[in-house]
Each structure stands twice: as structure tokens, then as C-alpha cells.
Amino acid sequence: MKRIFELTTSDIENLNKNKLKDIISKSEGRTVMSETIISYTPYIREVSNLELAASFGADMITLNTFNFEKPFIFGIDGGANLLSSIDNLANKIGEQIRDNLTNKDYIKNIKKLVGRMIGVNLEPVPEGSTYERGYRLNIENLNKVKEYGFDYIVITGNPNTGVTEKTICDGIKLAKEVLGDSTLIIAGKMHGAGSGNIYDEKSIKSFIDCGADVILIPAPGTVPGYDLDLAKKIITLVHDNNALAMTTIGTSQEGSSKSIIEQIALNSKMAGADIQHIGDCGTFGIALPENIMALSVTIRGIRHTYRRMAQSILR
């Protein structure tokens, strides 16, 4: 079995969640996930943030602010040239959204372009929320997750969305019911998100009991009081209950110095993380690209990092 940083585009085309979970587990804490805000124009003109993340060593790429009712990814679908007239740009975006809504291979084609596993954030907001429906975790969007062929979903809460432990658990149950064995379910909180406790072991256990395959927690040093010992304690609980653990940098420290990224990455590996996530707010909807590479080099060295970077052009 190949490790995750050895997979080529053809390898990832037919992975189900059980196979992916097994590959991540056997990669011994050397899996890198990069999150990108796809509603921003790209960091580098004419190169999407997804392609940039892949070329700097990411294995898994998570789309934040992907709108299932208005699917459009800046840099992939266009919109990078803001020098054109606003009216012309708006018309082109509208046309592309209509095409994407009916194109069942939309995400599958992006996976072939980028050569990485692609996932999406879904927000389990409470009833009565004014949050845009295209971002929410609901039956309609979960069916589209399956139809488009996303490899995984991330159930979590952006700040001030009203997401709680209960809404996350309810979201996990619904996702498991709709997605079955097709899609890996990642769930948890990478920061307070304006509400709720991120330190409670009972909450972590409840996410596993509800059916999450991977539990996400803050990386040591990213939120107050979340140190190596606490992270290790919670990750041990996760592993004892047959789930995987992902540490996350979701506090804009993805825009910190390289030495900070290296420290966070090494502590996360010592804590036992199976996946290390780096967030989307370094600059222009992506971590500083050199910090994606720094995280990769820290947890798996130059040899595997350079291979991963070169595999951006392998099929």
C-alpha cells in the first residue's frame, strides 16, 4: 500500500473513506492538509490556490466558503483578472456557475487537475440561522458532496455561526446517513468559533460516537492553554476509540514565521496527530505557501516533501 505522499492522480480516483482512512493511518503522522478560501481571488495571478497548495506539498486540500448553490472557484473557473469590466466579470461568473451546477464531473475534473484529494467545509448551523444555505450542512448539500465526488467533508464552525457541540453531532449523524462509506467525515473545532468548549473530552467522545472518522482539534500553541500534554491526552482518547486525529492551525498563525510553523508541526507530531492541517488566512485565502512546505518538511523531511511537490505534475 502506498503512503499518502506517494499517491498520484490515478491512485486517488477511486478511493473510498475506509481505504483513505487506512492510508492516512499507515502514513505515520505525515499527512498534510491545506485549507483554502475559494471565494477569494488567488494569491498568485493565473494560478489557483488549490494548485499552489499542491505544488508546495499538500496531500489534502479543503475548500472553505464553497457555495453548493453557487459553485465557483476563483482561479479555477476564472475571475482572476479583475482588470476587466465589473459587468463583464459578473456575467462570466454567472455563466460558469450555471455550468458548474449541472456538471457532475466538476470536482472530479479539479481533482485530476490538482492531483490531490479534495474536501469541503460544511457548517452545521442551528435552525433559524441566516447563514447562506450553500455553505450549510444539510441533506441537499450532502447529496451534492456525493454527486461531485468530494473525498471528505470537514464539519466545523467558522466564527459567530452559532455552531455548537450538539449541531456538530447532529451534522455527523446526518452526513453518515447520507454519505455512507463514500466520504471521510472529519469533525470538531479548531478554535472557539464564538461559542462552545474545545477542551472537553466528553465532547470529543461524543463526536466519535456520532460517527466521525477523524476528530480535529487545535494544534498545540494555537489557542490559549492548548499545549502538547493536552493535545496528546485528547489524541490518545481519539485513537483508543478507533478514530484518527487531526491537529489544526486555524488562528491565522498560518501567516506566522517559518520557525513557528516548525514548532507547531513538531509538537503536533509528538502529540500523535495523523493529519496536520494548515489554515487559509495566511494571505489571500491560503497559508503562506512556504509555510505549507515548512510544515511538510518538519513532519516528513525534504525527500518526501520534494516528491510530493513534484507529483503536482504527475498523473
From TrEMBL:
Every DUF7916 domain range: 6-315
One Pfam short name: DUF7916
In terms of InterPro entries, this protein maps to: DUF7916
SUPFAM superfamilies found in the cross-reference section? Inosine monophosphate dehydrogenase (IMPDH)
Q: What is this protein called?
A: DUF7916 domain-containing protein
Q: Which organism is it from?
A: Clostridium sartagoforme AAU1
Taxonomic lineage of the native organism = Bacteria, Bacillati, Bacillota, Clostridia, Eubacteriales
